[in-house]
Design goal:
It holds the Pfam family Y_phosphatase. This is Tyrosine-protein phosphatase domain-containing protein. One of its GO terms (molecular function) is protein tyrosine phosphatase activity. InterPro entries: Prot-tyrosine_phosphatase-like (IPR029021), Protein-Tyr_Phosphatase (IPR050348), PTP_cat (IPR000242), Tyr_Pase_cat (IPR003595), Tyr_Pase_dom (IPR000387). The protein is an alpha+beta fold and about 375 residues long. A hairpin with a 2-residue loop joins strand 8 and strand 9. Helix 3 packs antiparallel against helix 9 and helix 9 packs across helix 10. It is globular. The two termini are about 25 Å apart.
Length: about 375
């Protein structure tokens, strides 16, 4: 164990927090205490990206696809896809304790599951040291016509095969995260064990004379046949809100997807980084709230950005989803489909797999999650 000091606070940190798979709060102040209750595999509470070349995310375009023969079948498949992604990210921990339990699984099903698991492990080994892999290179893809049966098989025996698949997605801890561990940057991390890999981290323009000013706990993630399609980052802290807006401006992101409430179960999950009304200056960027439309499941905010001493203005849309509990699923399945997101990693996986489904009529959830974990730890 090594001791980590933050001001007058002291806390214990393991020598390899990433491999431990646990979340440690970075201070012991009751107002800022954070625990491991953030969801498994998706600690970051924001996802933002310039979704296309024009900086616009067209949700309808991603969702409007179906076979000519049977639109109902496609709708069922979409539901199953979303539920699978949720289960892969969230339910794996629920089934983890059942790994040693006995189950009546046929030889054929067990053999197929072992094959998929072995391929995931092999791909993980091949990918070490290769951060710019192609997410599509997969031996675990499932044709759309077989997907429903695939899910039924995974659900059998209290989801035992889900746990096998989940545990095959072992985090890759072979990359470096030196910037996250730099003394001047450690206070910028919401969780000590949630780091930004050096090879994929978002680098801000450095401020002269300010050590670590290029650092923010955020990583680029590849999408479907598109490099750096997304940025995944933690919910801003009070001391990093200006860095957050600096990143939005420098990356020309026009869409922010926020998938947490500011506070959940009495714990602060994200600092409010936008003005409740009017305008506010964050660093050298002025952010003005133009409109807020509150719906039953989410709020859409229209924000205007401009440099404090400049004339260039940009419009950014924030989609703030509020119905997804930290360790569960929405009570309404229709809300899930209409919103199109879960937590950060789930949202990204759903969006990428819907694009693949439309183009290739197949999905590879496990393979894609593996690719996400090679660009940001604990995804």
């Amino acid at each position: 164990m090594e001791e980590v000091k933050f001001g007058n606070q002291k806390e214990q940190k393991t020598t390899n927090p990433v491999r431990d798979g646990k979340y440690f709060s970075r201070d012991t102040d009751a107002r800022r205490r954070r625990t491991d209750e953030d969801f498994i595999g998706k600690p970051e509470v924001e996802a933002k990206r310039p979704f296309d070349n024009d900086g616009v995310y067209e949700c309808e375009g991603a969702m409007e696809f179906s076979t000519q023969k049977d639109r109902m079948t496609t709708s069922m498949v979409l539901i199953v896809i979303l539920l699978l992604v949720v289960t892969v990210f969230g339910a794996g921990i629920l089934f983890y304790g059942q790994l040693e339990s006995t189950a009546n699984i046929s030889h054929e099903e067990s053999a197929r599951t072992r094959t998929l698991t072995d391929k995931l492990h092999e791909r993980g080994q091949r990918a070490r040291g290769k951060p710019n892999h192609k997410p599509r290179e997969s031996g675990t893809s499932v044709p759309v016509e077989e997907f429903e049966e695939h899910i039924r098989r995974l659900h059998a025996n209290d989801g035992l095969l889900f746990s096998h698949e989940y545990n095959a997605l072992s985090p890759q801890a072979d990359f470096t995260w030196k910037a996250s561990l730099a003394r001047e940057n450690m206070r910028k991390n919401r969780y000590i064990s949630i780091v930004a890999y050096d090879h994929s981290r978002v680098k801000l323009s450095p401020i002269q004379g300010v050590p670590g000013s290029d650092y923010i706990n955020a990583n680029f993630l590849d999408g479907y046949q598109k490099k750096k399609a997304y940025i995944a980052t933690q919910g801003p802290l009070p001391e990093t809100e200006s860095d957050f807006w600096r990143m939005i401006w420098e990356q020309d992101s026009r869409t922010i997807v926020m998938v947490t409430n500011l506070e959940e179960r009495g714990r602060i999950k994200c600092h409010q980084y936008w003005p409740p009304e009017g305008a506010r200056v964050y660093g050298d960027i002025q952010v003005t709230l133009k409109q807020a439309v509150k719906l039953s499941d989410f709020t859409i905010r229209t924000l205007n950005l401009k440099k404090a001493n400049g004339t260039d203005e940009r419009t950014v849309n924030q989609y703030h989803y509020t119905i997804w509990p930290d360790h569960g699923v929405p009570t309404s399945r229709s809300s899930l489909l209409n919103a199109g997101v879960g937590r950060t990693g789930t949202f990204i996986a759903i969006h990428a797999m819907l694009q693949r489904l439309a183009a290739e009529k197949s999905v590879d959830v496990s393979g894609y999650v593996m690719s996400l974990r090679r660009d940001r730890n604990a995804m």
